[in-house]
Aminopeptidase (Darwinula stevensoni), 929 residues
Amino acid sequence: MFSVRNDMLRRRELVFLLLCQACFALWPDVERLRTSARKARPMRLRSDRQGTSDLFLPRHVIPTHYDILLRPVFDEALGFPVQGRVVIDVECREAATNTTLHAADMTIEDYVIRDASGIPLEVVDVETDGPHQFLIFHLGETLEVGSTYEIDLAFSYPIRRDRVGFHLVSYTESGMEKYLGVTLFQPSFARLTFPCFDEPSLKARYDVTIGRDEDWTAFTNMPLKETLPDDDGTFLDVFETSLPMSTYTVCFAVTQFSSLTTDTPSPFGVHARPDAIENGAFMLQNAPSIQLTLEEVFKTEEPMPKMDLLALPQSGAGAMEHWGLVTFREDFLLVDVDAEDFTRVFEVNAVTSHELAHNFFGNLVTLQWWDLIWLNEGFASFGEYVGMRGPNPDWDVWQIFVWDSYQPTLMDDSLESTHPLVMDVFSMNDFWPLLDIAYGKGASLLNMIFGVLSEEFIIFDGIASYIGESSFGNVVEEDLWRNLQAAVEGTDVDLGGRTIAEIMTGWTRQAGYPLVTAIRDYDTGGIRVQQERFLSDPEADPDPTLWIVPVTFYTPEGGQRLYWLAEGDGTLTTQPMPGLEEFLFVNVEASGFYRVNYDLRNWELLATELERDPNQFPIQNRAEFLDDAFTFVASGHLPSYEVPLSLTRFLRSEPKFLPWVTAATHLEYLHRMFVSTERRALFQAYALSLLEPRFAETPFEMLEQFPEVYGDILDWYYNYIIQSFTCAMESSACVQQASELFQLWKSAYDPQDPDRTILSPNAKSLVYLYGIYGGDDSDWEFGYQHYQLTGSESDKNSMLLALASYTGSASLTRLLDDILSPTSPIRDQDALQAFLYLGANIAGRQLAFDFLRDNWDAFKARFQEVSAVVAAFQDFNTPADLDALTALRDEHPQDADAFAATVAAVRGNIAWMDQHFDFIVDWLNASIQ
Ligand SMILES: [Zn+2]
């Protein structure tokens, strides 16, 4: 009936996607090269695609210091002009007759290049190189090695509207339109804001002055030094000289924000719209503790004298780690802990911790070039979980790491189309594709190193010396491997006679990851292990790539061991060897970035022992047995659902979130296939046989509490997955509890104050969903009213799902009419999502399909992407369904392409049903009796 992967999980999934792109989202519009401005003054510089391999600036002069003045005018009638001046001190390293730096999308109003005594040099020609965004001053004399020079440039441009460089953000406050200006530079947009040497390895110090009106506040990386009156009644804010920084970590902002600040234990500020600032108090309280924890763990003091956290109403990135002035899309920093649920509480902690971890990994120690983006993002994605523990020491955050980072990356990196973590970046177009796995695989490989160098102090010593050695400088992978190696020397850490560099190079420079298969010989007691590249597509060609794999394994008698598997296969030895009835498992605590398969008998032993006592196994392994086994059925490495379904039996006594959410993620597809069949009740009965012992201990009231302190927030995740999964299996007890709370909410509801807190934010989405599902048409009507009245975005989303998941056909028909009508209460931005929800509702699916067939042209007119509309029927799984779908396609041959993906998905479902359905029915029948 309902998707197990319910609203809360979807939101978390969305967060994952956003985190994946946390620092980058937009690629600006690029314009064609214009060289006609050559020698003209003023010169208008345009950006262009960086498409050639000659990407780097020449190194004959390098910058040491920037003096920057920016004067933005926030006046729409004037076009939001920005005037600026930059004086760059450079040192000559090689004799040359030009200076070359980056600048684009601006007008150079004036220029002069001086020697150390202030005498202007003759500029004989000014050249712009559009593809590289170079600005080249050809000189009438030769620059002398060892001498210093000043490049002094005045420039102007209208503030940008595309959320990179120095750009405008607008928002409404008390009905008035307001503006702010802020910068986003990673990876190569600083050059759109001031002429500069815009490469991460060209670090320099900055003195910044920003012009502003009265009642506005300017920010940059460093603290304010003084404010001076300007000629025209405005003010100039002058800031302290910065630490050495890469251009992409520089940030400027000019706002009319309100602020919350603290000086203990170090200066922190949260800055936001006045209407939203009170929701900044929570992270103002937590952020200093996160920073302290990161400092302690990585044994490095944060050198920035202050840390401002800026909450932007809109942002080109989820968040960006500008040093000392971190910018966030505001929902990643602000939270109303009385009105928002625990996932939001977790999220703001995680994103803030990620950005503060970048202070060490990215800001203090910076990648040499963008091909090594994983060194920034892998460490920040790992450090995020380290730092979060500071203010929340009881949170078992590593469960979320496995679910939100490790498992999805194993999935993404199993495609034939994946790529090595490190690849050449010859142009910025080569950079963006690296980001898909840089976060999760980078963090997972670090986690693997931690797992092998298991004595934590060793690894943290190595990382601390890696930071210390390159502070205010730049790094390559070898710097990390060398420092970790030095930390290991003289200890008893077993690297199998290899160096960390030798081991890790294959993991960062080869695509994909290994499948390790352990096969036992139950006659001799022998254990063979093999490796091959894991590819999720059963049709994929075999790939001969090998890795140096740390095969950690555990047997009840022999305990935990490590074996280095460098060849295609090897032999595990342990004393005593496991007996015939004893299990073995590989990849202890899932610290290795690989999957593990076993012979069927060992799988049986694992399933039996898990059911007898899951606590014999680490939480991560309980989850990974499930994740691997379900994945292996799809990839063809296991012949049937026998193994994964047998493994699910232990869930009856599983008290932790991670194994449950892993099971729910995989069982969701089975449920989607079963829900339209007459065996739906059989599937649900089995699922409830696992859930009911857990549900009995986690009644709804637990979600209904308003926690002052969350304790271990993973307990809330656990409660939620149990409640939502149980209700999704149509448990009458669960639906009834939700209905009672829905009626309580309804009776206390005040339409004049629709967002008055009545229900705990932790329970709301489930109460709406199952309260309406278990209610009648009047409850649906009431929910529809609330959808229209509430000012809460999350309430609107939760209610939309609830409305579309109801069973009454009259209400669903009305919803369909409203989805198609631009003047109905369904907002334009919600209409497509509502239709997709209806397609996922087995009670609404056929209605929705018939409605689409009867109103095809109207749907085409309302939704630009008609393929997204057709995707509502991707769960069709019978030949009759397929016939109906292809008949609709054939009625609209001009739109045939819009059906392709959904038709392919439906064919896949039909093949799955042919292959697995009867087997699963038999298995479920046998298990329930
Ligand atoms: Zn990041």
Summary: Residues 900-928 form the longest helix (29 residues). Confidence is low (pLDDT under 50) at residues 1-42, 47-53.
